[in-house]
Amino acid sequence: MGGNQTQIKFILLGITDSPHAQTPLFVFFLLPYIVTLVGNVGIITLVRVSPSLHTPMYFFLTQFAFTDICYSTVISPRMLADLLSEDKTISFTACMMQFFTFAFFAAIECHLLAMMAYDRHVAICQPLLYVTIISSRVCWQLVASSYLFAFLSAIVYTWCVFGGSFCGPNRIDHFFCDVVPVLKLMCSDTHSSEMVIFALFTINDVGTIVVILLSYISIIRTVLRMCSAQSRARAFHTCSSHLMAVSLFFGTAFFMYLQPPSSHRNLDKVASIIYTVVAPMLNPFIYSLRNKEVKGALKRFQKIHCICLCL
């Protein structure tokens, strides 16, 4: 990436080229972003102020909520600004940094989903050893290692996407700087870059989904051996929220990235909206509305808040 390369400016074509749809879409996407911020900040705050939620499960949940905030903020503000602006140009450096941070937080999200599955596996399959295996130190080590691996992965991703030559059209047919639309603008051979990206994506996403699958296979085997139907129902209910989040995130990610670039269609933008806008908004509701401990902590917090206001 030489000096001339960094002078390139791209144009983000956005979600639609219809001028009449820009303002309605701005309102339509502003609400999910606000809900994402409020919901995830609420989850983090509730876990911090509720001693009953100071467990590894909710430690990982706060990390997940923080990642959702960052992950969404990388994409949504720029997308919202472009919907109201006629100038949709983005510099080479800004485009590269947007992609880097997007890849960084997306990789962390994958690892956190795997950690949360492993946490549930230990809690259900080895409850007597849970405190020893999933200690506070282990939690921090797992999160730190995911940040380190995500950082290194994002560097490789970014080099593969922006390390070639751009000498043709500069119009990115997307609402952010993503892998496929940027690679389409490169005039140098992208085959080796695509292979590296595919391999790294396989390690990050397929590797973490394997951890999740193995954890849930072990969980299902353990739950089916339980004598009490109530215990089985409680165990499955504990895992249901995580499974919904996994399905939402990995389903759209696999659709986007585990297919050849030539087969990508207009549905890519819809899939991108789901995992960059919709998923971060829904996750707080998935984990709070289906979780008795979170709802109980929220009720206690509301009572304390009401008492303080009365005083």
TrEMBL record:
GO annotations of cellular component type: plasma membrane
Topology versus the membrane: Multi-pass membrane protein
GO molecular function: G protein-coupled receptor activity; olfactory receptor activity
Residue stretches spanning the membrane: 25-46, 58-76, 96-118, 138-159, 195-219, 240-258, 270-289
Function: Odorant receptor.
Subcellular location as annotated: Cell membrane; Membrane
PANTHER family: OLFACTORY RECEPTOR
Origin species: Melopsittacus undulatus (Budgerigar)
Keywords noted in UniProt: Cell membrane, G-protein coupled receptor, Glycoprotein, Membrane, Olfaction, Receptor, Sensory transduction, Transducer, Transmembrane, Transmembrane helix
Protein name per its UniProtKB record: Olfactory receptor
Similarity annotation: Belongs to the G-protein coupled receptor 1 family.
Main location class: membrane
